[in-house]
């Protein structure tokens, strides 16, 4: 997934090598717990706080580098809260003037009852950055996980997706403006689009490898027109999702996450990625046949991940509605500039 300006090749190679070595060591996909060997290695290499400011203990990289890190983790089947910790929780603390130390974090937005559902990685985090609304204003606090009531849950691929409950009367937070809340929502949505696109690209890679190496009736599968159609649809859908996601990422970085068209672009990326996943997953399993349903084959690592991630930080219907509503508000006169800006 080419997400914009080229990222240093040595850095991307190092990312892939770190995750690849961990996968080889364990023999398959894995959920990474804090305190593990990989967690410590990523911390030492400056990859867990990749985009943090150098003066605050980060590595001073940007979203393009972070996207490559997410892609490397997806390809190796390493499940770890890279985005939740660095791009969301620690970013929000820095943006709020609170600052973040080296503790493992995730982030959630509490409802009026003080509850948030489907919170990624809360049960394995040391601290949870909680956002809630009180007295007409949003507030943020960096809370120790043990002071919250956390009910464990998982998504389709076994990643923690937990319910977090807090006593709002006991929270003391820092007021933040609606701009940061909007940016948190859009950044969260874009993170999942990047991950879905990475999974779709790896599904396409597996499809091409399979049809090129397997034969049927004395011919490679790639020579059969019906198979070609299936794979070409996978490639087209993956490319569409990738292009929409790259456009949203570029707009976010270029406009410092304040572009007037960013919400539309992120929503379009999520919509394209979500709908692409349906076609790609269906076609990929048809292409692979029975072998693609086995635990030993890697296809399920990516198909299940794409289906799980496309419904997080906003469902497909939610992002479809955002696309529709934004286009309707733009009207005929503003729609073209909305799409092409």
TrEMBL record:
Keywords: FAD, Flavoprotein, Oxidoreductase. Its cofactor is FAD. Pfam families: Acyl-CoA_dh_1. Residues 193-311 form the Acyl-CoA dehydrogenase/oxidase C-terminal domain. SUPFAM superfamilies: Acyl-CoA dehydrogenase C-terminal domain-like, Acyl-CoA dehydrogenase NM domain-like. Coiled coil: none annotated. Belongs to the acyl-CoA dehydrogenase family. PANTHER family: ACYL-COA DEHYDROGENASE (PTHR43884), ACYL-COA DEHYDROGENASE FADE28 (PTHR43884:SF20). This is Acyl-CoA dehydrogenase family protein. It comes from Mycobacterium paraffinicum. The lineage of its organism: Bacteria, Bacillati, Actinomycetota, Actinomycetes, Mycobacteriales.
């Amino acid at each position: 997934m080419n997400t914009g300006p080229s990222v240093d090749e040595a850095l991307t190679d190092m990312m892939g090598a770190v995750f690849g070595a961990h996968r080889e060591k364990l023999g398959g996909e894995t959920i990474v717990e804090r305190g593990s060997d990989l967690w410590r290695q990523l911390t030492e290499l400056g990859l867990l706080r990749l985009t943090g400011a150098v003066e605050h203990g980060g590595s001073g990289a940007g979203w393009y580098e972070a996207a490559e890190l997410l892609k490397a983790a997806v390809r190796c089947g390493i499940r770890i809260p890279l985005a939740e910790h660095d791009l969301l929780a620690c970013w929000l603390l820095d943006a709020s003037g609170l600052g973040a130390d080296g503790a493992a974090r995730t982030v959630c937005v509490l409802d009026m009852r003080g509850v948030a559902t489907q919170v990624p990685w809360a049960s394995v985090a040391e601290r949870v950055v909680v956002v809630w609304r009180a007295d007409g204003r949003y507030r943020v606090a960096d809370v120790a996980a043990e002071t919250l009531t956390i009910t464990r849950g998982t998504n389709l691929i076994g990643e923690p997706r937990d319910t977090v409950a807090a006593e709002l009367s006991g929270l003391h937070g820092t007021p933040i403006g609606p701009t940061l809340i909007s940016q948190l929502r859009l950044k969260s949505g874009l993170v999942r689009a990047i991950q879905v696109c990475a999974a779709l690209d790896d599904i396409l890679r597996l499809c091409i490898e399979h049809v090129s190496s397997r034969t049927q009736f004395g011919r490679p599968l790639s020579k059969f027109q019906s198979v070609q159609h299936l794979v070409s649809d996978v490639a087209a859908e993956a490319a569409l999702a990738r292009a929409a996601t790259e456009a949203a990422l570029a707009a976010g970085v270029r406009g410092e996450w304040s572009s007037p068209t960013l919400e539309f672009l992120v929503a379009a990326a999520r919509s394209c990625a979500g709908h692409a996943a349906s076609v790609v997953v269906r076609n990929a399993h048809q292409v692979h046949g029975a072998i693609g349903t086995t635990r030993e084959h890697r296809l399920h690592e990516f198909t299940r991940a794409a289906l799980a991630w496309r419904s997080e930080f906003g469902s497909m219907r939610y992002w479809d509605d955002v696309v529709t509503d934004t286009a309707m508000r733009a009207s005929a006169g503003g729609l073209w500039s909305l799409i092409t800006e």
